[in-house]
Amino acid sequence: MSMPISKPGGAGRAKATPVLSGLLALGVTAACEGDFANLATPGGAAKGVALDAVAIADGAIVLRGPAGYCVDAKSVRARGDRQFALLAQCDLLNSGEVEGVTTLSVLTVTAVRSGSEAPLPSAQQIAAPFGPTQVLNSTRRRDIQLVQLSSGGDSVTELADPVHWRGVFRIAGYTLGLAAYSAEDGEGSGRAGRDLLLSLADNIRKPSTAGGTGDTIGTQRPGS
Q1: Exposed, middle or buried by CB within 10 Å (0-12, 13-18, 19+), for 33?
Q2: Counting Cβ atoms within 10 Å, is residue 116 exposed (0-12), middle (13-18) or buried (19+)?
Q3: What gap in Å lies between CA 22 and CA 104, rounded to an integer?
Q4: pLDDT of 21-39, one tens digit each?
Q5: 125: left (phi > 0), else alpha (psi -120 to 50), else beta?
Q6: Angle at 168 between CA 69 and CA 36, to 5 degrees
Q7: DSSP 8-state assignment for residue 158
Q8: Helix runs in 96-136, H state only
Q9: What are the two backbone dihedrals, phi and then psi, of residue 64, each rounded to the nearest 5 degrees?
Q10: Whose CA is closest to 111, among 82, 87, 86?
């Protein structure tokens, strides 16, 4: 199983390579969900279906990625007490290449049913499941607790940067856990990862017209 994170492919094009061959499994660990082995094509780019948005929690929550990011339709687990989706660059999901970037990040969303009154976890509580790790940065913005951890991003594959960002917020009776991973020294391990999670959270909080039972919504991106 492989997850493509880009390296320069020439002429401003980032070409997917299987340098994060365990990152999707890391998403499985975060979600405590079943087998995601079909999310990527071994030895090459992930061949998912890039969706603009997807509804989970019986339509109460709509996941929309930051600009340029889409939901991998194959990753979505939209029902039950614990729900999950993975997001990556739209072009990457469709074709394995993205113009104008040299590093890519992968985002995950895990939604767990919870009460709405409990306070958000502290930075140390978010870090605790990852064993001995240092909280490099901690900030709370727009009712989202964000932390940058010194380790844990490489818990599945040593090719991923151990430094990664995680975020937690609550909406519609669910606690949402967000994460941003990247290749070693990738932009997603730095401030860009934090900004991606903030953008993701803001998009999720936007009023939704989604209804129904957690089926996908929006349009499939061209090229898939």
Answers
A1: middle
A2: exposed
A3: 15
A4: 344 444 434 433 332 222 2
A5: alpha
A6: 55
A7: T
A8: 123-127
A9: -130, 130
A10: 82
